[in-house]
Design goal:
Distance between the termini: 86 Å
Oligomer: single chain
Number of helices: 7
Shape: flat
Largest sheet: 5 strands, mixed
Length: 202
Amino acid sequence: MDLMSSGYRKPKGRPTKRRKMLAENSKKRWQKSSKTVDEKTVIEIIDVSVSYDGTWQKREHTSNLGLGIIIDILSGLVLDFEVLSKYCHNCVVPGRDMGVDWAEFHIWQKGHADECDKNFDGTSGAMEMHAALIMWRRSISDGQMRFVSMLSDGDSKTFQFLSDNKIYGSDIKIEKEECLNYIAKRLGTSLRNKVKEWKVKK
C-alpha cells in the first residue's frame, strides 16, 4: 500500500513545461470568461502614475538574470513585473555534450525553444530598459492601463528609451517625475564633498 500522500508526490513533467501549461490554462479560463462580456461594452483605459525600477541577481551589471518591477504610486501595489534571462542551463548542458555547431544540437534546440529560460541576448545593463519596454507595451492589452507618469531613481536611460519608442503613439507622452529622496541624497553628497574640500584647503 502506498502511504505517500498525493499532495507530496513528485509532480510529473519538467518545471518550465508545468509553468507553461498552468499559464496556458489560466489564459484559456480568462478568455472563456471574457466572452461572456457584451462585445459592445467599451473598456475604459486608465492613466496611471507608476514607480519603476530594475534589479539584478548580482551587482556590477554582470548578472544573467534581471528583473523589472512596476508599482502603482497611489496604492503601492505591484502592477507588473518582467524577468529577463541570458542563461538557460538546459541549453548549456546539451551544447557542451553535443557541440553547439552540430546539426543534432540545432535540431534539439528548435524543439526546446518553447521551454527555454533564455529570453534576452543583450547586456545585463540593458535589461532594465528592455523589461520596461515589454511591460509598457502590454499595459493596455493586459491591464487596460497607460503608464503615463514614471517615477524613477534619477536614471534617465529607461525613460529616454521609452520616450524614443513612443509606446502610446506620438500624441501621448510619458512624463518623468523625480524622487525627492534621491534628490536629497545627491544634494547631501555634494554638500559633504564641499565640506571635505573646504577642510583640506583650510
